């Protein structure tokens, strides 16, 4: 039963598909053209045809009148009558037929036109001083209207002669009927052609889209090597470029996540191992020996600090990354911020042998997210401390003018090699050979700085020389 329902659904037309929409447009287009033709033929064709007929009859009439005196006038009359399907008569002034004459007409009384009609058609010519007139008449015995040409031929032997041409408008209706039939056939053909064209065009149009949708499914399954292929159209090319770009970014993020997990697990594991083994050492060896025990405990505390630093950095990072949009800019004094941050270091007796010098000049206000800028200053000072093992002098320079405020954190520490400078802003990057095992830092500090700076749109950077020291700076706007 379920199977059956599925089958039936598949046959149902998808009204949102390209095929259906194209087909609809084609049919509407063909329909509009056909309706225009129908309208034209029903509304205009009859009158158009009548005008044509009048013109033709007038032409024949005028030509014949000009030939009246020629010798083969009668032959011409017969020719026109035969070839154009017209009823042509020549009448004398009494309305009697002069042409065409049937075999015995010479001997019996010649047929004549009803006087009323004769007077209506020809009598009025003289009265109105005209050479010819055109009438549209509906004779009682004929079902179709006629076009009558009534013309004056001339005077021969003192008698006036007249030309009468009658063209029945029957062909118009006949033609309209034929056209109507043709149109029905054309309509059907148009429908068939529209369907066929719609089918092929839509297939061509949708093919690259279907292909892309399949590729996207592959991607969703976790195959990040897939490539969105370009199609036959600019729009499709644009779409595949965008999708490829999105795919690359996605891949990068996924790679980064993997790295993050790997790095974090490693960085968590190392201190934990140390803590565990020192804990065991205290239990098994140094327990009663106070000096040794304290030494071991110091190591445990220091490793616990490392762990705390790592967890804090990770929390900062996730906070920054999760609310990328939320930069709450306000105007504040950068010098105040530097003091605030420094106070946090000063209360830690580990840093008591460091000297901090603040050199502040000008208008030191700045426009930015205060807590995030504080974080940047903290990270930069923290690095300056961490990487200045001997010369423990750290200079904090603030320079402000009308447009901007600069901050420099200058140390005389170990410095950075030129080739390393590019990498230090990356996540988890640590300059090698700094330490046998990095006791300080997580490799996230400068990455956090970079992210915050980019969110603010501030210029930032570092000038550094190996074994001489570093100058980390940023330039904030007002
Ligand atoms: P970490 O937590 O390892 O300090 P950071 O992202 O803060 O990570 O810094 C990345 C690397 O840049 C550090 O490992 C260090 O090698 C180098 N570095 C950062 N600041 C300084 C500095 N003031 N002097 C020398 N090297 C530095």
Structural description of this entry:
The chain is α+β, with helices and mostly antiparallel strands and 478 residues long. The protein has eleven helices and twelve strands. It has a five-stranded antiparallel sheet. Strand 11 and strand 12 form a beta hairpin. Helix 2 packs antiparallel against helix 5 and helix 9 packs antiparallel against helix 11. The longest helix has 53 residues. The chain is rod-shaped. The two termini are 72 Å apart. About 1% of the residues have low confidence. Adenosine-5'-diphosphate (ADP) binds next to helix 9 and helix 11.
Features:
five-stranded mixed sheet; single chain; five-stranded antiparallel sheet; binds adenosine-5'-diphosphate; 478 residues; alpha+beta; 11 helices
SSE order and pairing:
Elements: H1 2-11, H2 18-66, H3 73-84, E1 87-92, E2 97-99, H4 115-127, E3 132-137, E4 146-156, E5 159-168, H5 170-220, H6 234-286, H7 290-322, E6 330-333, H8 334-346, E7 355-362, E8 365-368, H9 370-386, E9 393-400, E10 404-411, H10 418-421, H11 445-456, E11 459-465, E12 469-477
Parallel strand pairs: 7-9
Antiparallel strand pairs: 1-2, 1-5, 3-4, 4-5, 6-8, 9-10, 10-12, 11-12
Helix pairs in contact: 2-5, 6-7, 7-11, 8-9, 9-11
Adenosine-5'-diphosphate binds at residues 383-384, 386-387, 411, 413-416, 424, 429-431, 434, 441-447, 470.
């Amino acid at each position: 039963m379920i199977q059956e329902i599925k089958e039936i659904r598949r046959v149902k037309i998808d009204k949102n598909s390209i095929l259906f929409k194209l087909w609809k447009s084609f049919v509407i287009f063909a329909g509009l053209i056909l309706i225009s033709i129908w309208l034209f033929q029903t509304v205009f064709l009859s009158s158009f045809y009548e005008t044509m007929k009048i013109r033709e009859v007038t032409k024949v009439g005028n030509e014949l009148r000009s030939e009246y005196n020629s010798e083969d006038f009668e032959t011409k009359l017969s020719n026109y009558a035969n070839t154009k399907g017209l009823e042509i008569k020549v009448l004398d002034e009494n309305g009697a037929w002069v042409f065409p004459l049937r075999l015995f007409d010479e001997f019996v009384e010649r047929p004549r036109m009803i006087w009323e009609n004769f007077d209506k058609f020809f009598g009025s010519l003289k009265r109105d001083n005209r050479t010819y007139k055109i009438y549209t008449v509906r004779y009682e015995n004929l079902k179709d209207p006629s076009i009558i040409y009534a013309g004056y031929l001339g005077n021969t032997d003192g008698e006036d002669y007249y030309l009468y041409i009658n063209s029945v408008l029957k062909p118009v209706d006949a033609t309209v009927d034929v056209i109507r039939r043709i149109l029905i056939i054309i309509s059907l053909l148009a429908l068939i052609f529209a369907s066929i064209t719609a089918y092929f065009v839509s297939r061509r149009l949708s093919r690259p889209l279907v292909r892309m949708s399949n590729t996207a499914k592959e991607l969703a399954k976790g195959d990040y090597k897939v490539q969105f292929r370009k199609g036959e159209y600019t729009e499709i090319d644009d779409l595949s470029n965008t999708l490829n770009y999105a795919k690359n970014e996605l891949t990068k993020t996924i790679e980064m996540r993997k790295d993050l997990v790997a790095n974090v697990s490693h960085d968590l594991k190392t201190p934990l191992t140390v803590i565990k083994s020192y804990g065991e050492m205290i239990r098994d060896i140094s327990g009663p020996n106070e000096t040794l025990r304290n030494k071991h405990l110091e190591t445990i505390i220091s490793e616990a600090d490392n762990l705390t630093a790592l967890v804090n950095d990770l929390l900062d990072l996730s906070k920054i990354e999760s609310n990328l949009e939320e930069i709450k800019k306000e105007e504040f004094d950068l010098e105040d911020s530097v003091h605030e941050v420094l106070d946090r270091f000063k209360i830690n007796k580990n840093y008591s042998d460091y000297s901090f010098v603040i050199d502040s000049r000008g208008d030191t206000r700045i426009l930015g997210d205060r807590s995030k800028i504080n974080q940047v200053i903290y990270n930069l000072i923290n690095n300056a401390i961490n990487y200045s093992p001997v010369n423990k002098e750290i200079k904090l320079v603030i320079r402000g003018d009308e447009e901007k405020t600069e901050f420099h954190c200058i140390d005389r520490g170990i410095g950075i090699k030129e080739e390393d400078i590019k990498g230090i802003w990356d996540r988890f990057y640590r300059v090698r050979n700094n330490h046998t095992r990095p006791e300080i830092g997580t490799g996230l500090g400068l990455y956090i700085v970079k992210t915050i700076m980019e969110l603010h749109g501030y210029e930032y950077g570092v000038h550094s020389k190996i074994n001489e020291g570093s100058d980390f700076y940023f330039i904030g706007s007002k």
